[in-house]
Amino acid sequence: MPRKLGRAGKIKTPHGIIETPAFVSVGTKATVKSLTPEMLRDIGAQIVLGNTFHLYLEPGEEIVEKACGFGKFMGWNGPTMTDSGGFQVFSLGAAFGNRESKIKSSPRKIGGFNTTATKKARIDEDGVSFFSPRDGSEHRFTPEKSIEIQHKLGADIIFAFDECTSPTAPYEYQKKAMERTHRWAERSLKAHQKAKKVLELSELFGIVQGGRYEDLRKESARVISKLDFDGFGIGGSFDKEDMGKAVRWVNKILPEEKPRHLLGIGGVEDLFSAVENGCDTFDCVAPTREARTGSIYSSKGRINITNARYKTDFSPIDKNCPCYTCKNFTKAYISHLFRSNELLAYTLASIHNLYFFISLVKNMRQTILDGKFEKYKKSFLSSFRA
Amino acid sequence: MPRKLGRAGKIKTPHGIIETPAFVSVGTKATVKSLTPEMLRDIGAQIVLGNTFHLYLEPGEEIVEKACGFGKFMGWNGPTMTDSGGFQVFSLGAAFGNRESKIKSSPRKIGGFNTTATKKARIDEDGVSFFSPRDGSEHRFTPEKSIEIQHKLGADIIFAFDECTSPTAPYEYQKKAMERTHRWAERSLKAHQKAKKVLELSELFGIVQGGRYEDLRKESARVISKLDFDGFGIGGSFDKEDMGKAVRWVNKILPEEKPRHLLGIGGVEDLFSAVENGCDTFDCVAPTREARTGSIYSSKGRINITNARYKTDFSPIDKNCPCYTCKNFTKAYISHLFRSNELLAYTLASIHNLYFFISLVKNMRQTILDGKFEKYKKSFLSSFRA
């Protein structure tokens, strides 16, 4: 029988302890969309993640630094993390306008703005040039720059600069990108350690890449785990059926005593699979992004609250859910707010969806501690329709 | 020396006591835009007003009735009021597309949709035909219909159906419209009393009209005050300098023992003037509507928070303001949220602006009780720039 990877633990940060497994709320631009920090606390959120690239563009890391960091700026006094900007290499590169195309790697030096370029990110050995999706202005991230910005943003946990590749990229490209990510990891670590000599600083997590190839994932896990990181991120996109497998390959190699964050994953089944295979934390925009379209979670699956049938449904979204939305409002009311384009619709739906995901992962933690995770997973997924 | 009209009092409702003068929060479609009912309570809101015409269109009065009324539907357990739809006669009629034009009064029977009509409301002796601003569908309100809908919406205080005229309408039209409003008042009252025989019902307020003409305002006050209403509304648009005068004419005639609501007025100077001249309650969308554009109130006047100077201003909007927004967030942060089009921007700005207006009127109440209203008014207005 294979060794069990799923685990319950605790991550200590200067802003409190994170009980893991834990779902990380995404506060891209220093706000979890439509929610106050008090609402986040009431929901049971333990940690908020900010996006380095977005905060660098607006309001700029200098302003966040002057505000005494990301958490303080947004009024959140719990633990925080920032990503490295590496995901934007994917979202503005390979994924831009065409989810299937691979990142165009260009070793030549970036000059002026190439008006014929369809991709908004170009990679070379030293770093990545981005074109701002807001105004087309050019920006450059290197591992050193990403770390410098993240230090100014001042989260408790920060990440090494990496390249998040497309799941459809061929083996050769995945290997090349992974090896570059390893060199960037060393440079990120060096920049962090240098700054750490003069400043009390955050924990730095190294990122494992390697796409969906077993040998690359294992090689990446071996290389990154040998570096002096405080924890690890598992990056990249996966095919749904590959994810659990790829995470297992990696987590069998990563040192047991350090935390493991799975970047940008948050489907219900994916979360079970990630927890089962040894991940401790996960961030995903899905709960709040879907909430804003009226797509709402319950233990039976998702409903679209704008559906006409809910106009006269005076029951809560989920009668067993103790969240603020379910305790105080009916489907008929929330459905009315969505049809009327009322801002409160997004708040109430986001509270519920985020509560759903945070509680789901909390329950996974409890059932691990009770030795009943397998049973919980089976029972939950048998009635849940994605 | 003239008799002092300004007064502090209490209005009893089945959902609690309103200490007056009081600012009424506007929850047009059964939500004070971007705020939860808990936020409203924390702000110190005492009463919420819903708009009958909007709620009739969406979700429909039948659904609100099934939800046990407007307050219950939106999760607000304090006092409530609904307007009569009369303001929409103005906003879809005289004011539609051209603030200055007068309402086109058409005695002929309304047939199909007149595609050449620019106005979206047409008035005859029996009532008003509206064309929905959403889909062009035709709807008809009469005094009896307005009362029937308001009974279903189930607020604590409801209003007789009236015509809100344009401030630029000539004397002859104002007189004609006022006389019709008086006939509608009697019909509203009769419909209410008939229903009251079988149901435990809300209080009905009659509305005084008459534009800015002294003889008409006084006549309207005399006619309406003789009818068996539980309180009064003062309707119509005013020129800024006329308002205090017109309100004074009316309140000298209205019986002292019944409450007086000034409909849709909410400028800072107007509120001082209305309180001074004997009004008890006031509703206005300005605090929340302006908040959503970044226009924020303080004791010194309004600022536009999106102004570049606030990007690095790490002080609260008003260091003396104890509202949630001022206690927890800086101008730099709120300004960042607005520049990033983040939903939380509207919530935080609305909390502050609504707190500002509600507290301002609470302070007026206290200074009336302390005999210091005049001094407070003078001191407040000397430093406030509208």
Question: Main traits of this protein?
Answer:
386 residues, three-stranded antiparallel sheet, alpha/beta, 2 domains, TIM Barrel, 15 strands, 42% helix, homodimer, 15% strand
Distance between the termini of chain A: 30 Å
Q: Outline the biggest β-sheet of chain A.
A: 8 strands, parallel
CATH overall fold name of the largest domain in chain A: TIM Barrel
Q: What CATH first level of the largest domain in chain A would be assigned?
A: Alpha Beta
Oligomer: homodimer
Number of helices of chain A: 15
Helical amount among residues of chain A, as a percent range? 40-55%
Radius of gyration of chain A: 21 Å
Topology readout:
The structure is a homodimer.
Chain A: E1 9-13, E2 16-20, E3 22-26, H1 37-43, E4 48-50, H2 52-57, H3 61-66, H4 70-74, E5 80-82, H5 86-94, E6 121-123, E7 128-131, E8 138-141, H6 143-153, E9 157-159, H7 171-196, E10 203-208, H8 214-226, E11 231-234, H9 240-253, E12 260-262, H10 268-276, E13 281-283, H11 286-291, E14 295-298, E15 301-304, H12 324-328, H13 331-339, H14 343-369, H15 373-383
Parallel strand pairs in A: 3-4, 3-13, 4-5, 9-10, 10-11, 11-12, 12-13
Antiparallel strand pairs in A: 1-2, 6-7, 7-8, 14-15
What does this structure look like?
Two copies of one chain form a homodimer. In chain A, 42% of the residues lie in helices and 15% in strands. With 386 residues, chain A is of the alpha/beta class. Chain A folds into two domains: 9-94 and 140-284, Queuine tRNA-ribosyltransferase-like (TIM Barrel, Alpha-Beta Barrel), CATH 3.20.20.105; 300-383, no CATH class. In chain A, the strands form four sheets. The first copy, chain A, has an eight-stranded parallel beta sheet. In chain A, strands 6-7-8 form a three-stranded antiparallel beta sheet. Chain A starts with 8 loop residues before the first strand and ends with a helix. Mean pLDDT of chain A is 90; it is low at 98-117. Chain A binds chain B through residues 29-31, 33-37, 58-59, 63, 66-67, 73-75, 311-312, 314, 324, 328-330, 332-333, 335-337, 339-340, 342-344, 346-348, and chain B through 29-31, 33-37, 58-59, 63, 66-67, 73-75, 311-312, 314, 324, 328-330, 332-333, 335-337, 339-340, 342-344, 346-348.
